[in-house]
Design a protein that fits this description.
The chain contains 11 helices and 8 strands. By secondary structure, it is α/β, with parallel strands linked by helices. The protein has an 8-stranded parallel beta barrel with strand order 1-2-3-4-5-6-7-8, surrounded by 8 helices. α1 runs parallel beside α3 and α6 packs parallel to α8. The structure holds erythose-4-phosphate. The site of erythose-4-phosphate has 11 residues, from α7.
């Protein structure tokens, strides 16, 4: 499973990219707004830093507006993928953009039914929001697993991005079920790296080394 960073913060992205595993980045309007910077500049900077799919989301609600925003964003860099919210207008936009070879990421996906439609409309990626499904008292990982099974069954090319990740076990479970990608917030990447036994082990090794007069 590939790991994307779910962030619009260029410093975070630069730092995590240096660790060597980063395969792409996803942003959303909330993450971009938090930065208080020009959207297209941020997207351009991320594309310069990370060599992989970089998702940038449209904010129009009508198909025509989505498509025209998408064309502008796609012009920023060949790695830009257009995030389109799952709706009737969104599916229409995904289908138009697929015909123009502009890659899309169907976002705000909360069910296997939505994911299947997005894939059949031509989305390159679908993003089920597993944490937000959990928040409603339902099982986000079950929704994700249904999507993985259905896409495997029909050999769909659309890649599945486990999104709205809240903790390391979301990532582990997504990988166990064969999900293609997880987009992970900075804080959760840090949680994935650290383990108390690793820290204790390092301390112990250093103490033993010093005790032996090395
Ligand atoms: C995915 O592409 C979204 O940006 C993101 O995962 C949403 O996560 P949240 O539910 O933590 O806002």
């Amino acid at each position: 499973m590939r790991i994307f960073l779910d962030s619009a913060n260029v410093d975070e992205i630069r730092e995590i990219n240096q660790l060597g595993f980063l395969a792409g980045v996803t942003t959303n309007p909330t993450l971009v707004a938090r930065e208080g910077r020009d959207f297209k500049t941020v997207v351009h900077e991320i594309c310069e830093l990370v060599d992989g799919p970089i998702s940038a989301e449209v904010i129009s609600l009508e198909t025509e507006g989505m498509v025209s925003e998408a064309r502008e964003l796609a012009d920023i860099h060949s790695n830009v993928v257009i995030k389109i919210p799952l709706s009737e207008n969104g599916l229409r936009a995904i289908s138009i953009l697929a015909a123009e070879d502009i890659k899309t990421n169907a976002t705000l996906v909360f069910s296997a039914a939505q994911a299947l439609l997005a894939a059949r409309s031509g989305a390159a990626f679908v993003s089920p929001f597993i944490g937000r499904v959990d928040d409603t008292g339902n099982d986000g990982l079950q929704v994700l697993e249904d999507i993985v099974i259905i896409f495997d069954q029909y050999l769909l090319d659309t890649e599945i991005i486990a999104a709205s990740i809240r903790h390391p076990m979301h990532v582990v479970e997504a990988a166990r079920m064969g999900c293609h990608i997880a987009t992970v917030p900075y804080k959760v990447v840090k949680q994935m790296i650290r383990h108390p036994l690793t820290d204790a082990g390092i301390t112990r090794f250093l103490e033993d080394w010093r005790k032996a007069g090395k």
